[in-house]
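Good morning N.,

You mentioned wanting to compare the apo and holo forms, so I went ahead and generated the holo version with tetrahydrodeoxyuridine. This is what I fed in:
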Amino acid sequence: MKKLEVKVALKIYDHITELEQSIQEIMKQATLQLDHSYAPYSNFYVGAAALLSNGKIHTGCNQENASYPLCMCAERVALYSAGSVDPKVNIESIAIIAKNPKKEIDRPISPCGACRQVILEFQNKQQSPIKIYLKADSPNIYEFESAKDLLPFSFDGSFL
Ligand code: THU
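and this is what came out, ligand included:
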């Protein structure tokens, strides 16, 4: 028997002003997306903004449906926009921000498993890491250097 330990490193910033300008901008764009969120069922608002290597930003917010399984997360809306409009341009980073009007979220939001899998697919496709920035109501921000850090032991195309 062998025991394997997987460690995840992340940076925690106390405030958005500690981040470089381009990251502050995607955090801002992701926050603006909270107002576009269509979430009449959960009333939970999520905004995302992806920064491309050419400086372009693709945004997204969650889009819900009366048929619940059809709901789409903000991250995936932003990434699929980037993938369809700028398929050949690398994604450098993605900011994900959440707001729950019913209560304060005291720590950065964690993207769901499906979104982790999708971020990782984009990362594998472009063969360079996508940084992930997470924030909710508290001023602190989590930074992950790679989608792999959020989804170790992932399923990927190498199995197929
Ligand atoms: N949601 C996202 O948009 N991103 C996540 O990473 C977690 C959840 C959305 C889906 C649904 O519209 C609402 O938040 C509540 O789950």
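The chain has one domain: 12-149.

Happy to go through it together on a call whenever suits you.

Best,
F.
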